[in-house]
Design brief:
Largest sheet: 5 strands, mixed
Oligomer: single chain
Shape: globular
CATH superfamily of the largest domain: 5'-Nucleotidase, C-terminal domain
Radius of gyration: 22 Å
Distance between the termini: 41 Å
Protein name: 5'-nucleotidase C-terminal domain-containing protein
Family: Belongs to the 5'-nucleotidase family.
Number of domains: 2
Helix content: 25-40%
Number of helices: 8
GO molecular function: hydrolase activity; nucleotide binding
Keywords: Hydrolase, Nucleotide-binding
CATH architecture of the largest domain: Alpha-Beta Complex
Order of helices and strands: EEEEEHEHHEEHEHEEEEEEEHHEHEE
InterPro entries: 5'-Nucleotdase_C, 5'-Nucleotdase_C_sf, 5_nucleotidase/apyrase, Metallo-depent_PP-like
CATH topology of the largest domain: 5'-nucleotidase,  domain 2
Structural class: alpha+beta
Length: 304
């Protein structure tokens, strides 16, 4: 902000810090995290000012609004708490060690669901699925599974999409997504229909910075990552692969800039959310029981 002009107010929504200050001629505001504060920006006709009000100060409630909210909340909670399936195994959605550092059984389950749903919507030409581990937000313990469990795993309402990439683009995407290993990263790919190995003894070398990003393309795609197969066939960097993902990674989110142009050119939105894909796959394919086939990760990803 010190190096730009013409910006009156800058609102930061993802740093988890509390800021209310002027940077040059620009008001910088950030409300912190977890709804702890309400940010207020005021304009008096000449200047902007800001302040943070701790949410705890809002102790009162409007009786009419509270009654409306409570009535709707009770109905929603009844729907979300409905048990529709069971799992015989604990499904690991923890951050680390977990979905941000390695293949997990929940990552396999979720990726299988995304791939299956894409095939139902688009066709069997969809041969693989990639979803970012950072989008998986919770584990599922053995026992009953409710609708709320699925929405807790995938809470963002992201959609199942498909698009076509070259093998080289897929390799670049996976190389970039595993750049931080052995440290954790929300970009870490959970996959279906893809088998690959990451050699963390090889340093990730930054290439050019991706546009409008803080992440770097790999200078040498394939130096750390080896893709053994896609869709059950030997990997070919010149082949075309139709894959499934979520709309966030497909549009270039996290480190997945290599997907952005292919998605823009060939993307199809199935209209099915990730959580609904999990529900559909569990009921229609697994018969409502997540069984021993998902007791352990299935050997799709090797990190060494």
């Amino acid at each position: 902000l010190e190096k730009v002009t013409g910006i009156d107010v800058f609102l930061d929504g993802h740093s988890h810090t509390e800021i209310s200050e002027m940077v040059g001629d620009t008001l910088l505001e950030s409300t912190g995290q977890y709804g702890e504060n309400v940010g207020v920006v005021e304009y008096d006709g000449e200047t902007f000012s800001g302040r943070l009000i701790p949410a705890a100060e809002y102790a009162g409630s409007d009786e009419t609004v509270a009654a409306l909210v409570n009535g709707v909340d009770a109905e929603v909670q009844e729907q979300l708490s409905a048990v529709f399936a069971t799992t015989e195994v604990d499904l690991n959605g923890e951050r680390e060690p977990g979905v941000r550092t390695e293949e997990t059984n929940l990552g396999d389950f979720a990726s299988d669901a995304i791939l299956w749903q894409a095939q139902q919507s688009v066709g069997d030409q969809v041969v693989a699925a990639v979803t970012n581990g950072g989008g998986i937000r919770a584990s599922i313990p053995a026992g009953d599974i409710s609708m709320n469990d699925m929405k807790t795993v995938f809470p963002y309402g992201n959609m199942v999409v498909t698009f076509t990439v070259t093998g080289a683009e897929l390799l670049e995407a996976i190389e970039a997504a595993t750049a931080f290993l052995p440290a954790s990263s929300g970009a870490f790919p959970q996959v279906a229909g893809i088998v690959f190995t990451v050699d963390t003894s090889v340093e990730y070398v930054n290439g050019e910075m991706y546009p409008n990003s803080t992440y770097y393309a790999p200078a040498n795609p394939g130096s750390r990552v080896t893709i053994e197969s896609v869709g059950g066939e030997a990997f070919d960097p010149e082949a075309l692969y139709t894959i499934a993902s979520n709309d966030f990674t497909a549009a270039g989110g996290d480190t997945y800039y290599a997907f952005a142009y292919p998605y823009a050119n060939s993307g199809i939105d199935t209209g099915v959310s990730l959580e609904d894909a999990l529900i559909n796959y569990t009921t229609e394919v697994l018969g409502g029981v997540v069984g021993e086939e998902y007791a352990q990760p299935q050997g799709r990803i090797t990190v060494k």
